[in-house]
Amino acid sequence: MTNPNHIHLPKGKKVYFASDNHLGAPTNDASKPREKKFVAWLDDIKHDAAAIFLIGDLFDFWFEYKTVVPKGFTRTLGKLAEISDSGIPIHYFVGNHDLWMNGYFEEELGIPVYYKPKEFTLHNKTFFIGHGDGLGPKDKGYKRMKKVFTNPLFKWLFKWVHPDIGVKIGQYMSVKNKMISGDDDAKFLGEENEWLAIYSKRKLEEKHRDFFVFGHRHLPLEIQLNEKSKYINLGDWIQYYTYGVFDGKSFELKKY
Q1: Which domains occur in the chain, in start order?
Q2: CA-CA-CA-CA torsion for 8, 20, 220, 210, nearest 10 degrees?
């Protein structure tokens, strides 16, 4: 049986990474040009993609009721379905804005969803991948909030709010509340203070990984952790329009 966590790259194929689109922010109409740009990128990379990793906060707010998902994002969801149906695996990591998923991506799009960082082997290189929220020595305010948002009682209560009201509340909180957004410190802190880099160094004490790939910080970053390991933050699709590409040997941040 093929291990889905081991991805082989045929000659000429690549693995692509993107995060932090925040579609729907500040409004669906305002984010539509960014959505069209992202869909164009997906269309461009599908010809040589061996796999695609979407590393959280694709949406600025997402909550799945039993029979209802937020309105909009048709172009993105349709393109993801097309690519997934073509046989190109897509892996999705939830972020702090879209952590309330409940089977829609798996059942409708055939895309596995991960709620914690996960390790993959890509063409004999080890990757530790996650959105990045709540990791490392900082992000304390969000860590407290996440305990509330992921509490089964909170989710059960919220799902009884009518979607027209619940989605509006969620969208308002996502745009206005910096504690939820997690992007109020989106500036470079210096290598010694970048908390996801610190977290990555601690993980290296357990075992070697070649690459640590995260989102959440909204900054395109590459930090050499030691001679053989590197931390990468993918940036975002709001200001930078950056993405990662791995060709089997090297990882590169590019701008679309």
Answers
A1: 13-255 (3.60.21.10)
A2: -30
Q: Mean pLDDT for the chain?
A: 86
Distance in angstroms (rounded) separating the CA atoms of residues 61 and 96: 9
- Using the predicted structure, report yes or no on whether residue 163 has a pLDDT greater than 80: no
Query: How much is the pTM?
Result: 0.86
| C-beta neighbour count of 134 within 10 angstroms | 20
CA–CA separation, 14 vs 26, rounded Å? 33
pLDDT tens-digit readout, 71-104: 889 999 999 999 999 999 999 999 888 877 888 9
Strands 242-246 and 14-18, sheet pairing:
antiparallel
Using 50, 70 and 90 to split pLDDT, how confident is the model at 55? very high
Burial class (CB in 10 A: 0-12, 13-18, 19+), 162: exposed
Amino acid at 72: G
Task: Label the pairing between strands 125-129 and 113-114.
Answer: unpaired
Whether the per-residue pLDDT at 178 is higher than 50: the answer is no
- Token look-up 């409708």 returns 108
The alpha-helical segments, DSSP class H, found in the chain are 28-45, 74-85, 104, 140-149, 152-158, 163-176, 178-181, 195-204
Closest CA to 89 of 106, 111, 107, 118: 111
